[in-house]
Design a protein that fits this description.
With 171 residues, this protein is an all-alpha fold. It is built from 8 helices and no strands.
Length: 171
């Protein structure tokens, strides 16, 4: 009888481990605390579940930026560019699919952070205007709104008047 139960469990795929799936809150939190290659790899490779189109786009946006962030951990210039452009293209596709505050914020942070010779800075002013105009009405949590503002200010790029973001009253 025991052999039959073991056989049956193998056939039915029964096992004691489950595959966790992560939602946008989990991915966002992991991204906000990412400090290593392993953190970004976890985000890129983690199985996710989305409750809506917007949620799916947000998850994919964080995965795309994490893909680009992996460029900082490799030596080969070719591999750096490959990681960066793959993630950047994914992020642009997300923004086309569903423009939202988090995807725009992520693109803006990437543009403010990468070297200018990459030519990935054409949307900074539009992205900042979008964020300034839409962050108050955004459906993201107050904690996420504060994180967005703080992260943009902390990029240290003073060419775009980022300190003005402190004046926005969040709710």
């Amino acid at each position: 009888m025991l052999r039959f139960l073991v056989f049956l469990s193998l056939i039915l795929g029964f096992n004691s481990t489950s595959t966790a799936q992560y939602d946008s809150d989990s991915i966002r939190t992991r991204f906000e605390n990412a400090t290593s290659e392993n953190d970004f790899l976890w985000i890129v490779n983690s199985p996710t579940v989305a409750s809506s189109l917007e949620d799916s786009v947000i998850i994919t946006s964080y995965k795309a930026v994490s893909q680009s962030a992996l460029a900082q951990y490799v030596f080969s210039p070719y591999t750096k560019l490959k990681y960066f452009w793959k993630g950047s293209k994914q992020l642009e596709a997300c923004i086309i699919e569903d423009k939202n505050i988090e995807s725009i914020y992520l693109r803006c942070v990437v543009q403010l952070s990468v070297p200018s010779f990459l030519g990935y800075s054409g949307d900074i002013e539009n992205d900042l205007d979008y964020i300034k105009s839409n962050i108050q009405e955004s459906t993201v949590s107050l904690q996420t709104k504060e994180f967005i503002i703080r992260t943009l200010i902390n990029t240290g790029n003073e060419d775009y008047g980022l300190m003005e973001l402190e004046k926005i009253e969040l709710n």
